[in-house]
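Complex record, two chains
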Amino acid sequence: MSDVKKFLYVNRKAPHGTIYALESLEVVLIGAAFEQDVALAFLDDGVFQLLKGWDTSELGSKNFQPAYTALGDYDIQKVYVERESLEERGLSEDDLLEMVYEDEDDDWAEKSSIRIVSREELAKIMQDSDVVLSF
Amino acid sequence: MKLGIVVLEGPYQHEAADTAYNFAVAALEKGHEVFRVFFYHDGVNNATRLMVPPQDDRHIQQRWSELAEKHNLDLVVCVAAAQRRGILDEDEQGRHGKDANNIAPGFRISGLGQLIEAGIQCDRLVFFGD
C-alpha cells in the first residue's frame, strides 16, 4: 500500500441544526496538512452546506460559510455533489457556491472543484476510496 | 484487521455510542486489532467520569475505561470538541483556569491529527454517528 490514501469526507447534514457540518470542516482543514488524496462529497441535506447565501451568525454561532470557498487554498480539488440530492430539494448547480482550485498541471489555471455526480457514480467513488469519513 | 473506530454521538442520547462499544468488543473477540477509538462531536461526552447512570443501566464511560484497560486501547478525545463541551483533563484544567477536570481513566485528550493518522494507519475506519 502506498503512503497516500484516498480520503473521502462524506457530508450529509445541513449547516444548521447540528454541529456535524462545522466539525467535519475542521477535520478537512486539519487533514489537509497530511498530504493525502482528499475528496469531499455532499449528499442528502449535506448539499445545503454548499448553497449560496446562508449565514449562521444570526443563530449565535460562527458563520463558517467562507471556509468552503477557501478549500481550494487547502488543495481540495474534488468536491462531488450528488445530483439526486439536489433535485430532491429543488436545487440545481446554479444555487451552489463557487468553489475553485488552481491546477498546477495546467499553468495554475483556476478551475471549478465542483463535480455533479449521480447517486450511482457516488457509490462507485465511495467504493474506490480508502478512507470514508462520514459526517 | 487493524480497525479505527470513530464515535460521534453522546452517551444515553443516541444508540451510536452503544453500537460503537459493541462493535469494538465484537471485533476484539474476533481477534482484530483496535488501533484507536476517536471521540468527536458529542462523542466526547462519553469520556466524563462524572456520569452517574441508574444502577440498573449500563455505565457507558466505565465500560469504555474497562475495555481500554483490558485490551490496552487508545481512547482519544478531540481537544477542540472537548473544550466546547467541558471535557477537561488536568492539563486543560490548568491551561483554562478551571476548578475541576472530568476525564475518565483510559481516555486522553489530543488533536484531530490523531483521527487522520488512524485513517492512514488502519485497514478500516468505522464511523458511528447519526
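Note: The beta strands of chain A are 6-11, 37-42, 78-82, 100-103, 109-112, 114-117, 131-134.
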